[in-house]
Amino acid sequence: MKRLKLRDTTVGRSFLRSPDRATERDRAAGHWSNFLLHIYPVKVRRRELHFSFSWYLGVASAVLLASLVASGIYLMFFYLPSPSSAYGDMQTIQTQVAFGQFIRNVHRWSAHLMVLTVAAHMARVFYRGAYKAPREANWTIGVILLVLTLLLSFTGYLLPWDQLAFWAVTVGSSMADFVPFIGGSVREVLLGGDQVGSQTLLRFYVLHVVVLPVVLVGALAVHLWRWRKDSMFDQAAAEEGGEA
Amino acid sequence: MSDQDPRIADGKRVLGVVPGIPATGAQKDPSDQDLVMTSPHLLVRHAVAALAVLLVVLVLSILFDAPLREVANPFETPNPEKAPWYFAALQELLALFHPVVAGVLVPTAIIGGLLALPYIDRNPAIATKARKVAVAAFTIFMVTWIVLTLIGFAFRGPNWSWVWPWEEWHGEL
Amino acid sequence: MSRGIDRRDFLDRGWKTGIVMLSAAGFWTSWDVLRPLPGSGLGGVVNTIPANDVPGSTAVYVRTAQTYLTKIDDEVVALWQKCPHLGCRVAWCETSGEFECACHGSRFNRAGEVRSGPSPRGMDRFAVAAEGDLVEVDTGAVTEGAPAGSAESIDEPPRGSGCAHA
């Protein structure tokens, strides 16, 4: 019996545009015409499938980012970035909003884990020697992504407006004071004053929910695009060629 | 006929019948450098990895609540005051060295060094044996950083004095 | 290249210069927009307590000015609560007669001079004036403390144990 498939209908064909996936050629065509799959190369080297190759740390970081975006959007509905309401909003989220405490936990744990997986991803790539030509630029973009991850985590740290948040940001921003020439003004622009206050909370909020995520997703797009482009590169053949 | 759609007869596909040995020869051993289709080989693995990560997040979120201390108070610094764990190594350095060294030079050198790593290490070799210096340097850096992070996170108490974590716990997540 | 730059070079350099100038203008404008408005934070003159109530052997905290008041050689001194290391609030410890910073363990004597710890200089001081009977603290006029390692101006060794584990 022939099962009716979505991609055999007129509507399905117009959206998916892929032929019946019988041969490898058809599957490749389906891959190319799929928006979500376009971040993946059509083919990869077999070694990339093994756990020991990557420990799947890159994909873990991406999944945690998605989890952070989803839980972060929920939290934004219940949070106002002002010293008079921020802490109260946190208490409301934890005690009155349905699943509020759980969503906050997901956001917090995903953030901690993402710092961990991004750093571990970097270490794994180092030990695999995967930063070498032709992948130098992508390593550099990866380091930028690590810094952005840390900045996102740090700006988010202030938002609960509790003692943990306030003093951690006071200490962190005071370090800027010791940068020669520009340090003092950088800190003032970051904090919106000379001490952590209402302006700081607003600024960190804007950085945390708009500026840094947009920059991070943009840099991530380049990172993945570069990964796809370089995925066909045959490291073993290159090494043989190098030695010959 | 080679590039046309395969014929379908009785729900089965006839690709052709060729007498003799297979044109591709005997089955060769799969090599790690062979190309395989991303869909499904890599995709299913990524899907499983994604589910595993989400499971970890789910379990952690059910078991441990995110901390919320007292409301921010500019007139009272908690003691000990701890930076987020990923800055614990930096905080430990700040307690030991002048802030220009620990707060400016060291972070700048680390980030700058990491950014420039592929342009500093021009050795094309991949095998660990052939790049001992780079591997040793990176490993020393990582181990130092992890040790400093652990010290700052778990082994420091009030006034940044040394404590044993099993006697007094001051870590903050 | 006896003709100097030709038209193609001129236009090529022109649009690149234009892009650079536009980026610089955009950056500067953003920076300027984000600079804090004047008058945010501390900076005002605060009337505190009568000068006669400022103690000579301990320190009293004035919350409105974020300041510790004490007397050194019969002169009122206003020490800013902010640790010159990384901005934590320095706490006065009565049992040892020292200021202690919770963040990285810096210690200061009663005059705000560094005794130990990573702080690069002594506690900053605000200018003080007499307003009738009261001590007037000008939180806009900050004098930085002496660098770490300078000799202490008062002879007051720690009286007892610190407050770290109190």
Overall description:
The complex is a heterotrimer of chains A (244), B (173) and C (166). Chain A has eleven helices and one strand. With 244 residues, chain A is mainly α. Chain A has a single domain, classed as Cytochrome Bc1 Complex, Chain C (Up-down Bundle), CATH 1.20.810. In chain A, α7 packs across α8. The model of chain A has no long low-confidence stretch (mean pLDDT 90). Chain B is mainly alpha-helical. Chain B has a domain of 76 residues. In chain B, 46% of the residues lie in helices and 5% in strands. Chain B is built from four helices and three strands; from the N terminus they run βββαααα. Chain C has one helix and ten strands, in the order αββββββββββ. With 166 residues, chain C is an alpha+beta fold. The model of chain C has no long low-confidence stretch (mean pLDDT 86). Chain C is elongated. In chain C, 17% of the residues lie in helices and 31% in strands. The chains are: A mainly alpha (244), B mainly alpha (173), C alpha+beta (166). Chains in contact: A-B, A-C, B-C. At the B-C interface, α2 and α3 of B face loops of C.
Spans where pLDDT lies below 50 across 5 or more residues of chain A: none
User: Helical region count of chain A?
Assistant: 11
Second-tier CATH architecture of chain A = Up-down Bundle
Oligomer: heterotrimer
Count of individual helical segments of chain B: 4
Along the chain, the helix and strand elements of chain A come as HHEHHHHHHHHH
Low-confidence stretches of chain B: none
The level-1 CATH class of chain A: Mainly Alpha
Chain pair forming the biggest interface: A-B, 92 and 75 residues
Global structural class of chain A: mainly alpha
How many structural domains are formed by the residues of chain A? 1
CA radius of gyration of chain A: 23 Å
Per DSSP E runs of 2 or more residues, the count of β-strands of chain B stands at 3
Physical arrangement of strands within the biggest beta sheet of chain B:
1-2
User: Which structural class is indicated by helix and strand composition of chain B?
Assistant: mainly alpha
Helix content range of the residues of chain A, please? 55-70%
Q: Indicate the mean pLDDT of chain A.
A: 90
Instruction: Provide the β-strand percentage band of chain B.
Output: 5-15%
| Number of extended strands of chain A | 1
Helical residue percent band of chain B: 40-55%
